[in-house]
Amino acid sequence: MDELIKTAVLGLQNAGDYDDKLVDDCKAILQNQSYDNDARRFLDASALTLFQQEYSAIPQIDSFEELPDIPDETRIPMSNQKMTEFSQLLQKSSALRFGLQHLLQTGEYLPDTHFAQLMSEMKLELSNRQRLALVMSARSHWLLTMNGQWRAYMERVIDVQWLSQTDLENEDLLVDFSNTNVFLQTYFLLGLTVEQRVGFTQKVWSHCKVEGRQLLLRFAREDLKNNPQLVEWLAEQSQDKSNHIKREIIRTLVTTRTQWADEIYQAGVAQLALYVEKKLLRKIEVQVPEELTSELKNLAIFDQDYLNTNEPKPVQRLGQLLVILGPDNWGKYLDCASESAMERLLKSRFGKELRLYLLEAAIVHEHHKAFKTWCAKVDVYASDSVQLILERLSPNHGARIINWAIAEKRANLINHSKIWLQQSEQGQFLTGTQASTFFALWCQMIAKGRRFYPDYDYLYALMGWMKITQLETKDWQALQDAEKIDGGSVSLMQTLFNFSQGK
Amino acid sequence: MKLTQEQVESLAPDPGTLKRAQKIAKPSNYANIGASDRAIWAESLGSSNYTTYIDISGPAYKCSCPVKKLPCKHAMGLMVLIANQPELATAPEPEELTDWLIKRDSAAKAKETKKSGEVKDPKAQAKRQEQRTQNVEAGIIELRKFLEDMVRVGLAESSKRSQDLWQDMQKRLVDAQAKGLSGYLEWIRTEMGQGPQWTERVFRALVRLHAMLNAWDNKHNLSPAMVQQLRERIGWNQSKDDVLSNPAVPGPWFVINHGTKYESGLYSQTIWLMHQQTGQFAMALNFASDFNPEALEKGFQNGTLLPIASAHFYSQEFPQRIILKRSNAFEMEWVDCWDWLEQHSQHNFESAAQSLQKQRIQQPFLEYWPVLVKDVRIVNKDEQLTLADTDGRLLKIASDFTCQWQLLAVVGKNPVTMFMVTSDCISFSPWAVLNNGQWLALNMNSEL
């Protein structure tokens, strides 16, 4: 057959005689036919040969190698109860992300039956597959060792020990990982030293895409304090080709109170003076930049609606400028306290349009008083914007802002499943008094039925973040009494989180 | 009637609608909820109120909301709610719904009557058929020349040929009303120069096509059933009504695997089934345009039984392709005991090969032949994943099978009962396995 294929590939014009490649039976049949067409004769000969081969094909006994043995489990086995819970999670692909992340954190492995079920219909999106690889049941470890391509990429990630100092020095390996956000996140969960984290960030930075660099910046924020070398290095990266990253670097650096930050402040205040004018009786006159000048661009202000405010571009420009400067500098410029400056800006001509940027400024600069003032003066449902703000800040920073929001009884600022999921994934859970206070606020909010209905994604994220079993069941009862959650969700949550119904 | 979440989810026209439906699936969003063995109904409450009816025998949906794509979120939400809280269905059946169901029944009866009616003008029809046969014959002569020319210049040279040449030939076949042959040629064109072993794949396809044309030339010596098979491959479609007039084979039918592919504005859905009692394989093939994807069959769960579905085979003599009729899209059963499946399985590759050859001699013009084999393991042969039976016989995995790693993940090192299809009886695509009492079907449309 191979010879006939060769003849077909070369073409009858170029190949030699093929008769000697035919079996005798086939030759005999062809001899009894008359052909006026060489191509048709060849195709007939090929058909006879092909069908003879295919129709008589009986699989042969042959030597082979067994696949390697599946290694022993090194992670913790799941309890029977949890296995049942996980079975239910598998039926809701939207909840898988949480489930897999949970296993990653607890060190449990995915039993074979569940692993096979997950892989069979392949409902998993790529990021979940990566999580699955990290969860690493022995079966998934084994699977990866079967495939050279995957192995080269992931074999070293089988458990947390992969990130040893030696690995950190292996630039090729880091480059391989650097475009995988799940790996980046996992790296920062490992509890390594500041030096290790900084070393890692510097090594992989240039290999990361925008999302990856954004993630590295989030974690770098925590390490900037008392680390002038990192500040200096980050300043060197401030001419990043992505405007988004450029803005994030400048915003990260201005909170360091270094000389570099002072220069930014001075340039920023000079710009602010062009648009915000002090008037008598604590009033201010605000105008917005009609053009995106080079001075504004130097402050990493660009026409990107990164908060999805849908406000006009001039407003967005002034908003971004205010965020860079922060409440303390507004106060200095307006000769008043920061919270008073916040109030004046909120009351100004563009106060309504600027309010989300003012909130962002209070959050980014961790200005508690300004935040409180904002909460007291603005009662809007801003959790979409807060989610976008927090996803660029470090997990600890996010946790502090969340605590402030709870203290101000502003659950509607943090009522967002992505916020909860992000926090859980970074190991920041809501526990104790904070949790019960938030849960009570959340129940009230549900009872009012404002703007949202808790779907599965939302509930899983909430339950995971709050470790719901620690809650008082009276809160739970209040929630059910409000009859805003359907029976299916209630029973699923109860099973999933072993949460007994009202006492 | 007992609805499950899985059943409801399998009816969703798209993930977005399902998600929106889950959001509104709560008692406070519906009023006058009711259900019977035939239908589900309710008033959907929201910024506007709508009347929502579901005829579960279709299933068919009627909702007064403006959304054209059915089932809409109101119908889906109602089904989700009933699946979670069936006790809510207490309202009596509204008159409007009764009228709608009666109308649907009458329309179905009228269609049945129309089906059994006679052809209006048999002479004109015969003339049309004669003309079509002549057109096809002319197309086949041109196709023969095209294939022979390919062989003369060689596959290597042909793969560099302009796309226009191929497209011209395909268009001429479409004009000659031989759409099946045009599709075959399209497959060969897309394989030319693509991926490893393309020359072997193209050569085999070319030779099979040539053999099919030879068979057509020899049609007067073939049985009518064989000629019918050939006609279908060439492009004579049987009308749905004709197929439905063939005797129904009642279930239970087991859903082996199903998947939908999208290519150039067309959805094609393949559903592999097996009769629980006889072990007969069947394949439903459905198509839908870009504008009407909801025309595809919904409500299939791999690894479940359809107890009251019935199959109408396209051919009685050579049964494989079917139209599946389901009187209730929610009737499905999970399988607890798999003894029957084991009974229908081949014990080893030798008996599987014999069974396949038997099928193939009867139905030489099919695209795929299916087989179910017990105790199959995955082993390594020359750095390739290969299938092995208990006797140590080996089978190759098809080079175009894209789910090797997915297969490895679900099988591990266990011996499993494996459902496979082959187009040449030499290499196989394993699309589903029974492993430790779990039926695991691979996604026929994805790559790992």
Strand order of the largest sheet of chain A: 1-2
| Gyration radius from CA atoms of chain B, angstroms | 25 Å
**What's the story with the biggest beta sheet of chain B?**
8 strands, mixed
- Beta-strand share of residues of chain A: under 5%
What is the percent of helical residues of chain B? 25-40%
In which range does the helix fraction of chain A lie? 55-70%
The overall pLDDT of chain B, averaged over residues, is 87
How many DSSP helices of chain B? 14
Going across the biggest sheet of chain B, name each strand in turn: 5-10-11-8-7-6-9-12
Beta-strand share of residues of chain B: 15-25%
Distance between the termini of chain B: 38 Å
Low-confidence stretches of chain B: none
Main sheet characteristics of chain A: 2 strands, antiparallel
Which structural class is indicated by helix and strand composition of chain B?
Answer: alpha+beta
Q: Give the oligomer, counting copies of the same chain as homo and different chains as hetero.
A: heterodimer
Radius of gyration of chain A: 32 Å
- Count the E strands of chain B: 18
- For the record, the count of structural domains of chain B works out to 4
Return residue spans of chain A where pLDDT drops below 50 for at least 5 consecutive residues. 152-166, 495-503
Search tags:
heterodimer; A: 503 residues; mainly alpha; 4 domains; two-stranded antiparallel sheet; 29 helices; 1% strand; disordered C terminus; B: 448 residues; alpha+beta; OB fold (Dihydrolipoamide Acetyltransferase, E2P); eight-stranded mixed beta sheet; five-stranded mixed barrel; 18 strands
Short note summarizing the structure:
Chain A is built from 29 helices and 2 strands.
Question: Could you describe the 3D structure shown?
Answer:
The complex is a heterodimer of chains A (503) and B (448). Chain A has 4 domains: 2-55, no CATH class; 81-238, no CATH class; 257-377, no CATH class; 379-503. Chain A is 63% helix and 1% strand. Chain A contains 29 helices and 2 strands. In chain A, helix 21 (351-364) runs antiparallel to helix 22 and helix 21 runs parallel beside helix 23. The N and C termini of chain A lie far apart (77 Å). The model of chain A is unreliable at 152-166 and 495-503 (pLDDT under 50). Chain B is of the alpha+beta class and 448 residues long. Helix content of chain B is 39%, strand content 25%. The longest helix of chain B is centred in the first third of the chain and has 32 residues, at 122-153. Chain B has helices spanning 5-10, 15-24, 73-84, 95-115, 122-153, 155-158, 163-175, 179-191, 198-217, 224-234, 240-244, 339-343, 349-362, 404-411; strands at residues 30-35, 39-44, 50-55, 60-63, 248-250, 253-263, 266-275, 281-289, 304-306, 310-313, 321-325, 333-334, 369-381, 384-388, 394-397, 416-422, 427-435, 438-441. Chain B has 4 domains: 5-115, no CATH class; 122-234, no CATH class; 243-336, OB fold (Dihydrolipoamide Acetyltransferase, E2P) (Beta Barrel), CATH 2.40.50; 344-441. Chains A and B meet through helix 1, helix 3, helix 6 and helix 8 of A and helix 2, helix 3, helix 5, helix 6 and helix 9 of B.
